[in-house]
Every structure is written in structure tokens, then in C-alpha cells.
Amino acid sequence: MTEKQIIFSGQVPLPAIGQGTWYMGESADRRREEVAALRAGVERGLTLIDTAEMYADGAAEKVVGEALNGIRDKVFLVSKVYPWNAGGEKAIAACEGSLRRLNTDRLDLYLLHWSGSYGYEETVAAMETLITQGKIRRWGVSNLDYDDMQALWQVAGGRQCATNQVLYHLGSRGIEYDLLPWCQQQGMPVMAYSPLAQAGRLRDGLLHHPTINEIALGHRATAAQILLAWVISHRGVMAIPKAASVEHVRQNAAALDIRLSAEEIARLEAAYPAPPGKTALDMV
Ligand code: NDP
């Protein structure tokens, strides 16, 4: 079966599951396992790695840098800039800091982590400078709701935005009201963060729900794999689960091949309905 792909900037096809790194780099004891997990993921096709200058205060980027040793060209590398660094010389310095920690000369995608400190004009201008300098290939945003995206679309160059990375899992479906359909209409991929609801921490009982587990049994899969399969069943949506063990990475990669039937999707969505109207964008 052909696995589901997401196309960035109309050019770069990637498997619809990638790898997150939040909480990596927090402990020296876990570093070796984190590096091994990331490398195992790339080997199994989870070639997008998502990180940020924020995670473990730069130490997650160092873990990724170690994992990239010898395989940089196989990876689509994503990092994020703090809002208060997202303009002018600060953006250049922040990006250079990320590149140093990641031990590479370019990012495939650089995201504004959330908005607030600089106007979109300044952030877009900084991103364009970084592209001209060859430090990033493309840029995008994170945690922007529908109205924020409309504002970004009014800015010169704003429509070059390659993605919006937002919280999305079966237990948090607010983006389906307006943001997701709009991104789909623009042909802009959405990156779903916390697709496992942080192993259920963000939504009590998600991994233990009887419906999810029944469906998992039918696919000889785990509840986590069904959650990933559900996220990527949406057009133009990729999931970036964080996994710090090779076994979790193996499961997450295998979720690329799970096809949920329309009936299974309907059962999952009946168990966790989308809110009936507009809600504020969910974030962690
Ligand atoms: P996730 O929903 O990815 O959950 C991570 C948790 O799930 C970890 O405890 C992990 O355990 C566990 N897990 C992973 N795979 C499995 C599996 N197959 N079965 C059971 N448990 C599993 O949460 P995150 O919040 O980490 O989101 C993913 C990524 O999205 C982040 O790492 C980060 O890169 C990005 N993100 C971006 C944000 C933004 O503001 N832009 C905000 C939050 C996240 P273990 O580690 O032990 O494998």
C-alpha cells in the first residue's frame, strides 16, 4: 500500500508522519536513546524532524544535531524561532544559533513558534532575508488561528507561508471549524502537534477509550497508532508525534500504513465530537 504523503511548497513530498522533539535533551541519561530513536525513525521513513530553540533551552536541537550525523540529506529539518526573536537582526542570530546547535548549514523549514512580539511584516521580511542567505529553505508559522492567518495573508510575501503547525488530536478538534478547511483550500499543509494528546495527558483517558481500542484490535494496532491514523486521514494534515524509544518510533512509522474505514472514522468522531462552533485555538 502506498503511504500517505504531504507536499510542502508544491515540491517536497514527505510521509505524513514525522518526529517531534519536545522534552528531548532534558537529561543526559536519556540522550543516547533519544538519538537512537530519531535515527531509527529516519530509517523507517519518518524523515521530517521538528524541533525548536525553546526545547530544553536549545538542548533538544543538540540531540537532533547528533542524530543527523551522516544522514542530514535524508532529513527535512524544521526548527522554530521564539516570537521575541522573530524580526530583524535577532531573527538572523536566533537562526544561526539553531544551525550551530543542529550542526548543519540550513533548515528546510523555519517556523514562527507563536505570534505576539513582532508584526507579521517584520517576521516575513526576516524570513525572506534568511532564505536569501541560504540559511533556511522556506518558512511557516505555528499556533496561528484563522483570523491570524487572514492577517498574515494581507502582508506582502505572507502567502509564501509553507505550513501552520497547530495542536490537533482526536480529543481536540476545534480547527475543523474554519482553520483546517481554509488551509486545505489554500493547499497549505497543516502539521498536527501533540497528535497523541501527549500520550493521553492532554485529554484524560484518550488512549484507554473502548472505541479506540476496539478499532485498534481490528487493525492489530495500538490505540496510539489509531490516533495517528485518524489525524493523517485528513487531507493535507501530517502528524509529528514525539517518541523517545525505538519501539514507539516503530509503531508510529507503521501507523502510516493503517487505513481507517469511513465507518471507523465515524465511530471515533462520535466518541470525540468536534465543538459545534468556533472555539479559541487550543495550544500547549
Ligand atoms: P505527542 O502527542 O507527540 O505525545 C508524546 C508522548 O507520547 C510521549 O510521552 C511519548 O512517549 C508518547 N508516545 C510516542 N509514541 C507512542 C506510541 N506509539 N505509543 C504510546 N505512546 C507514545 O506530544 P508532543 O506535545 O510531544 O507533540 C509532538 C511534537 O509536536 C513535539 O515533540 C514538538 O516537536 C511539537 N510541538 C509543537 C508545539 C508548538 O507550539 N508548535 C507545541 C507542542 C508540541 P516516549 O517519549 O516515551 O516515546
Automatic annotation (TrEMBL):
Binding site for substrate: 113
SUPFAM superfamilies: NAD(P)-linked oxidoreductase
Pfam families, per the entry: Aldo_ket_red (PF00248)
Residues at the site labelled Lowers pKa of active site Tyr: 80
CDD domains for this protein: AKR_YeaE
Active site: 55
Name listed for the protein in its UniProt record: Aldo/keto reductase
Species: Intestinirhabdus alba
